[in-house]
Amino acid sequence: MDGSFLGGLAIVFLAAVITNNILLTRFLGMCSFIAISRSMRNAWYMGLTVVFVTVCTALINYGIYFGVLVEGAPLLQTDLTYLTFIIFIAMIAAFVQLVEMIIERFSSRLYSALGIYLPLITVNCAILGVNLFMIEPDMDISFLQSAIYALGSGLGFLLAICLMAGLRSKLEAADVPAPLRGLGITMIITGLMAMAFMGFTGMVQQ
Amino acid sequence: MSIYVEAVLVLGILGGVLSALLALAGRRLANYGPCAVTINDRKPVVVEGGGKLLETLYDQRIFIPSACGGQGTCGYCKVEVVSGGRTVLPTEIPFLNENEIQRGIRLACQVKIKQDIQIKVEESLLSIKEFRAHVSRTRQLTHDTRELEIKLVEPATMQFTPGQYVQVLVPGKGERIFRAYSISSPPAIDSTIELVVRLIPGGVGSTYLHRVEVGDEITLTGPYGDFELDEDKKTELICVGGGCGIAPMHSIIRHLEKTQSRKPCTLFLGAATAKDIMYQEEFEALKKRMPHFDVHYALSDLDASPEWQGDRGHIHELVQKLVQDKPGRQAFLCGPPVMIEAVSRVLHAKGFTKDRIFYDEF
User: Which of A69, A87, A112 sits opposite B89 (nearest CB)?
Assistant: First the structure.
């Protein structure tokens, strides 16, 4: 492993966390972002669950896509990429269900912390988004890079939702004009945060 | 041609593998085997693990109140879990205070039975029965409110006290959904009960009860509610009802009439407009027959019903104006939460202690 290889991974990681933050630059996963960011504790657990599910499903779907679906893949030669959407969705949903059953069985404490967020992220578009961006032809990433990209995107979601939870706890004491209370001010803040994150764009050369 | 075959093949295999995996996990992981459920000091009953406590108790003929169909949104189904309940879930936290969490109070709809479990249920809930019944009469009270008379079939009679309520089962697929309705008939009539149902657009319970016809079967559980009428004839009773919160008041006042009670009783009724007022003629007639009974109305919609000669404003303002400061009284309130809160505040200021004010929110 030479320096440029590790440097490449670091760039993928930083780009996923900050400059291409899945939430604040693509606006994916907004529903859970807004619904769960009312308390820091919930935001933290929701974020961790998203990190875990994103990384695992990205690895599995990477295998399915490049092993089966893409033209000239080792298992089937035909181009079946038009099935990507439906297969990725089914895969993520099944994986989340399975993980829920496993932690419900084996860890009561973990279930108590994460259990209620798992059904929420079964259809979280941020996770499907990461899975789909990863296979874009111009990304051209390796298995390891896709793992790092998924990890970075998940952590980016965690960062954004925790920042939002922090801001919203400050907002509790703020004098917000009545029509903007709740969802309205949250949307405005999300927009401001997105602009702040875009300020990082020049820092990482892609 | 082969591209279609391959596509179907890939989807089929992947779908099959995923379904098989989930089915296997369901059988292996979500299978908790037989678990013993101990309720109070009764003999433990063995049930198949994996089910929800609320449903299991229902199967054991113990009817815990619940209004949201096990969704964890009403917070009514509280029971004390002594052991085997595992950690409190975040879905329960909004409904439990610190003290309740310490005591092991849980929402029965959120607790899954995964091991032997010991619970405590209030004794009063153990005597609640399930009734098979049918609709015997219906009457339109106002433009959006219907009175239903329900004939009890099995068991054929219900012993209740005025002010109590029943839970009506709303038929449908999936989890059992119940909706609570106060009984508006007096306890002296025990083979039928009357309910007052206001149609709420989109509401499952009221839509169902506005559709049923005479002769249709109804399943209900009850009676619930801890209002106890102070039978001392010197104790003055203040009743405040908003909208169809009139139902329990109707039961209480007809009970007083039937028992020829000499207890002083003042009824305050709040409605939005004159056409929302229920039982007005009946109460006016009762007022003439019962020297100790009085009734006052207030319309909250200040511009509606220009022909209205009576009071206007919120009902708590009328209570503030007319209720005297004197000891030895009991109050019963039924209506929307804001009304209950406003009226309670007025009554507290007039010297009512907490244990002398009973209320039912809806």
Answer: A112
Is A75 in CB contact (< 8 Å) with chain B?
Answer: no
Chain segment A13-37, per-residue pLDDT in tens: 988 898 888 888 888 988 888 888 8
- Quote the strand ranges of B63-127, DSSP E: 78-83, 105-107, 117-120
Q: Above 80 in pLDDT, residue B69?
A: no
Contact in structure between A130 and A153 (CB atoms under 8 Å): yes
The Cα B61–Cα B66 span in angstroms is 14
Tell me the per-residue pLDDT of A98-112, one tens digit each, with 9 for 90 and over.
888 888 887 777 787
Q: Rounded to whole angstroms, how far apart are CA atoms B227 and B334?
A: 11
Q: Is A12 inside any structural domain?
A: no
The CATH number, out of the four listed (3.10.20.30, 3.40.50.10330, 3.40.50.620, 3.40.1190.20), of the domain defined by the range B34-125: 3.10.20.30
Residues in chain B: 362
Distance (Å) from the C-alpha of residue A110 to the closest C-alpha of chain B? 10
Residues B245-282: tens digit of each pLDDT: 889 999 999 998 888 888 888 899 988 888 888 888 88
The reply to whether B88 touches chain A by the CB within 8 Å rule is yes
Q: Distance (Å, rounded) from C-alpha B76 to C-alpha B122?
A: 13
Residue A14 domain flag:
no
Tell me which residues of chain A, numbers 86 to 145, contact chain B at a CB-CB cutoff of 8 Å. 86-87, 90-91, 94, 97-98, 101-102, 104-105, 108-109, 111-113, 115-116
The closest CB to that of B25, out of A98, A111, A116, belongs to A98
User: How many residues comprise chain A?
Assistant: 206
Rounded to a whole number, what is the distance in Å from the CA of A192 to chain B's nearest CA? 30
- Region A160-183 average pLDDT: 87
Q: What's the CATH number of domain B128-224, 3.60.15.10, 2.40.30.10, 3.40.50.2000, 2.60.40.1180? A: 2.40.30.10
Chain A residues near residue B88 by CB distance under 8 angstroms: 112
Residue A162 tokens read as 């925790």
**Residue recorded with tokens 């006290």:** B161
Which sequence spans correspond to the domains of chain B?
34-125, 128-224, 236-361
pLDDT at position B175 over 80:
no
Residues of chain A with pLDDT > 90, as a percent, come to 30
pLDDT of residue B258: 87
Which chain B residues are closer than 8 Å to A64 by Cβ?
14
In a domain, A15, yes or no: no
Q: Chain B residues with CB inside 8 Å of A116's CB? A: 89-91
User: Cα angle at B146 between B141 and B151, to 5 degrees?
Assistant: 115
List the single residue in A with minimal CA-CA distance to B12: A87
Nearest chain A CA: its distance from B356 CA (Å): 36
pLDDT > 60? residue B22: yes
Q: What is the pTM assigned to this prediction?
A: 0.70
Range of weakest confidence among A172-181, A196-205, B102-111: A196-205
Task: Report yes or no for ipTM above 0.85.
Answer: no
pLDDT at position A41? 83
What is the rounded average pLDDT of the residues B38-49?
86
Is A112–B26 a contact, with Cβ atoms under 8 angstroms apart? no
B8 touches chain A (CB under 8 A): no
Decide if domain B236-361 falls under CATH 3.40.50.80: yes
Quickly count: other Cβ atoms within 10 Å of residue A131's Cβ: 27
Residue A4 domain flag: no
Domain that includes residue A141, residue range: 24-198
Number of domains into which chain A is organized:
1
Cα distance between residue B248 and residue B181, in whole Å: 9
Inter-chain contact B10–A68, Cβ cutoff 8 Å? yes
B26–A contact, CB cutoff 8 A:
yes
